[in-house]
Write a structure and sequence with these properties.
alpha/beta, D-Maltodextrin-Binding Protein, domain 2, seven-stranded mixed sheet, five-stranded mixed sheet, 51% helix
């Protein structure tokens, strides 16, 4: 018993030293964790706050924020918060914004080749096939080359295949090509050139300005994108006729932009998170679009909107107009021709595969659901 205090004292001393060391280590480690900085990036979309497109931008940001675990935070502002929608690309390049969400066709004024990611029939490719070409057929490298040639310091990610866009909203339905002539019409990208070939007077307004222009009679008709966006932007308040199906923007997708310097400064693991968030958001957006667009399509019909299938004659006229546009643009812009040739080669191979392999889903749909009166768009 007399030896126990002698043994206890060294033990207590050892424990005291160990605790002190542990506390000391914790004192060093804890501040390192608490001082770990969150990199916050300020984004702006090209969409009004109430539009589902802005929601898509926020969905992407949330995926990044959730996966980054506090190390990276993207905040997304609606169009016009910092700069007007059509000035977003320059603002991101200059660092006024750290990033943005929009469509690449908005920048076609800088190089007409950029519109080939959104405008036109894309040689029969649907939007997901255009994304396949972009990531696996050479499109991504071409975009990077174009932006570099324009001295734009941005990193671009394409994602989010959009459903086929309507021909647009009209005060009166159009039944033939001649009905398009003389209309004051809103569209963007190389669709401007297509509709100009069809005889319309085009005004490329940003999304938030379309319905007010229709209401004031500044334009006669307009296209935007989908049932959900069209409904929330107020199209049914100023027009009651919507023409479905068109080739003017049948293969479009979204673009996420990062300021080049800000992106390059990020650690490798955060860049990987962004890359995978883009892919996850692309799939999620395409699923959400099916759910929301189909519901809003039903609500628009309940609200008295009349839907008509765009006549085949107008669709064929669009293809003929597109042929003229791309022939002219390719002759005056070598980069346009390079992008076009790349798309054509990919589309010829992938399109053949898809048309041979895919079943006609309408056959199965019609087998189970009778397409009676009032359920399908009227023929124009």
């Amino acid at each position: 018993m007399s030896q126990q205090p002698k043994q206890a004292a060294p033990r207590r001393g050892f424990l005291k030293k160990a605790v002190a060391t542990s506390v000391g280590t914790g004192a060093l480690a804890a501040p390192a964790v608490s001082r770990a900085q969150t990199t916050t990036l300020r984004f702006q979309s090209t969409w009004p706050a109430k539009d589902i497109f802005h929601e898509y931008a926020q969905d992407f940001a949330k995926k990044v924020n959730d996966m980054a675990g506090g190390r990276l935070k993207i905040e997304v502002l609606p169009a016009g918060s910092v700069v007007p929608a059509f000035q977003m690309l320059d603002a991101v390049s200059k660092g006024t914004l750290d990033g943005g969400h929009g469509v690449i066709a908005y920048w076609y004024g800088k190089n007409s080749a950029l519109a080939l990611w959104g405008s036109g029939p894309a040689f029969g490719m649907d939007p997901n096939m255009v994304l396949a070409w972009h990531y696996y057929g050479g499109g991504k490298a071409l975009v990077e080359e174009i932006y570099k040639s324009l001295n734009l310091d941005v990193v671009s990610f394409m994602y989010g295949p959009m459903p086929t866009q309507p021909l647009g909203w009209f005060k009166k339905p159009v039944a033939k090509v001649e009905d398009m002539k003389g209309l004051k019409f809103r569209t963007v990208g190389l669709a401007v050139d297509v509709f100009t070939e069809l005889g319309t007077a085009v005004n490329p307004l940003p999304g938030g300005e379309i319905v007010p222009a229709l209401d004031r009679g500044l334009i006669d008709a307009a296209e935007f994108n989908n049932a959900s966006s069209d409904r929330v932007l107020g199209f049914p308040d100023v027009a009651k006729n919507c023409m479905l199906q068109s080739f003017h923007q049948s293969g479009e997708q979204f673009e996420i932009l990062f300021n080049g310097a800000k992106y390059k400064a990020l650690p490798t693991e955060l860049k990987a998170i962004i890359d995978y968030a883009v892919q996850a958001a692309s799939a999620d957006m395409s699923w959400k679009a099916i759910e929301r667009n189909s519901r809003d399509y039903e609500e628009l019909k309940k609200a008295g909107v009349k839907f008509y299938k765009t006549p085949d004659a107008i669709l064929r006229a669009q293809l003929a107009a597109w042929d003229k546009v791309i022939e002219k643009k390719a002759a005056e812009n070598p980069m346009f021709k390079r992008v076009l040739d790349s798309q054509r080669a990919f589309a010829q191979r992938a399109g053949q595969w898809q048309s041979d392999y895919l079943v006609d889903f309408k056959m199965a749909y019609n087998h189970y659901f009778s397409r009676g009166a009032g359920q399908q768009p009227k023929k124009g």
